[in-house]
Amino acid sequence: MKIDIVSVFPEFFEVAQLSLLGKAQDKGILQVQAHNLRDWTHDVHHSVDDTPVGGGAGMVMKAEVWAECLDDLLGLSTSAPTQAQGTSPADATGFTDRQPVLIFPNPSAPLFTQSAASELSQAEHLIFGCGRYEGYDARIPTYYRRQGIQTREYSIGDYILNGGEAAVAVMVEAITRLIPGFMGNPNSIIEESYTGDESLLEYRQYTRPSSWRGIEVPSILTSGDHGKVDRFRRDESLELTSRIRPDLIEHLDCNRLDIKDKNKLRDLGWNVDGSHPRHGTQGRSHL
Among residues 31, 40, 84, 113, which is most buried (max CB within 10 A)? Predict the structure, then answer.
């Protein structure tokens, strides 16, 4: 996979040389390159922003500077015909013709999820744009969608950052660790939180010693009975998810739950007699 990142602070992404992300680049699995947006400016001050149309506080990143940069990275001609909005292959899911995917972090966009990370990990080329100030001109993603470029905007949470760099770093790490060969042990991602069709939170983890500062590891984990250990961990995932993210429980398919799962959810106060669990009137989480 090739990843291009555009920012006014490209040095932020020196972190991409560390840990597993750096090792993946050394192995040739991944290529990450950060670009300075100011390299595509033509004025003496290297300006990338201007005042917002209609007034208001702050500054907005200019479309023409971004366009020069993105046209170069995407290999687009400025004379390329503009397609009618809504008919572009950019509106479809999946990746065809090895086309790049253009991604902007935006607090007003849909939430970035594990499902999105999994999908994007199958692309061959991702281009991230890091907004600053009051954000980027809204015509930028509109224009590239009309050129047939798959263009995504994502929020990483209900809060505001100074710029898109930290959000892009989060997305890059979430996506790249799903690339085949990235993780030393691929089984380590199978039971993680939000992974798979069920999207439950992962059970808690422990290591040696079994007793530490008066806190004991649950004895069942040292019993050697793998069946009981698996059930304990499954129950804990259900308990944690019920308490912290009940919205994830509501999306479970009851037809895919076994009798022990259903009994556990009933104990936690869920009605599992329909297609999806819903809050019942009995039981409660005891975590």
Answer: 40
Mark the binding-site residues for S-adenosyl-L-methionine, compressed into ranges: 131, 156-161
Which residues belong to the annotated binding site? 131, 156-161
Helix and strand numbers (H, E) in the chain are 8, 11
From CA 232, how far away is CA 245, in angstroms rounded?
Answer: 19
Inside any domain, residue 252: yes
Global pTM?
A: 0.85
Q: What is the mean pLDDT of each run of 10 residues along the chain (287 residues)?
A: 98 96 96 98 97 95 98 82 46 65 97 96 98 96 97 97 98 96 77 71 95 96 97 97 96 96 98 94 49
Question: Is 182 in contact with 176 (CB distance < 8 Å)?
Answer: yes
At 5, give phi and psi (nearest 5°).
Answer: -125, 130
Q: How many CA atoms lie within 13 A of 83 on its CB side?
A: 14
Structure-token match 């042990």, residue found: 185
75 and 136 together in one domain? yes
Does residue 98 sit within a domain? yes
Q: Which domain holds residue 274?
A: 211-279
Residue type, 90: A
Q: What integer pLDDT is reported at residue 184 of this predicted model?
A: 72
Q: What CATH number is associated with residue 258? A: 1.10.1270
- Which run of H or E residues covers position 66? helix 63-74
Q: Closest Cα partner for 163 from 6, 3, 51?
A: 6
